[in-house]
Design a protein that fits this description.
- The chain has five helices and six strands, in the order αααββββααββ.
- The chain has helices at residues 5-20, 22-30, 35-45, 77-80, 115-132; strands at residues 54-55, 60-62, 65-67, 72-73, 133-138, 159-163.
- The longest helix has 18 residues, at 115-132.
- By secondary structure, it is an alpha+beta fold.
- The strands form three sheets. The protein has a two-stranded antiparallel ribbon. The chain has a two-stranded antiparallel ribbon with strand order 2-3.
- The protein has a single domain (5-49, 77-163), classed as Orthogonal Bundle (Cytochrome p450), CATH 1.10.630.10.
Amino acid sequence: MAGHITTTALLGNTVLCIDEHPEVWAELHADRSLVEATIEEILRYRPSFTQVGRLTTIDTELGGQIIPADAIVTPWLLSANRDEREFADPDQFDIHRRSNHHLAFGHGIHFCIGHLLARLEARVAVGILLDRYAEICLAPQTQLKFYSRGIFAAREVPVSVRPA
């Protein structure tokens, strides 16, 4: 799944965010230098994965609770990426966010080895969409079907476009 579903989810989530915030599409048309920051905000706001599984190697205390060694823990990326201690107005979609240390690609030794490729693919795809379309949004009467667990994305994202 790594490298395919994550990138397609990112592209679908890009369309969902643009549909919810059409003013962003106009901003991107006016200033292509905002594409990278927009992708980073989409990764924070709608990360492809909702959670990751990890195995503790030593007894650890977290929030006053002891987690024993060899226990499986499941950090929620959605929650971490909306942490008000890390992000100002965390529930606000903001492509001008200055500090965006999201966890969409993990952290530390588990940081996604393909993060550069995913970001590059997203930048290229968004650039092509900007070249081709003055507007892009969900197709009318779209009933999105989402993955059942773990993946934070719609299975299909039908769009309506207006050529550039």
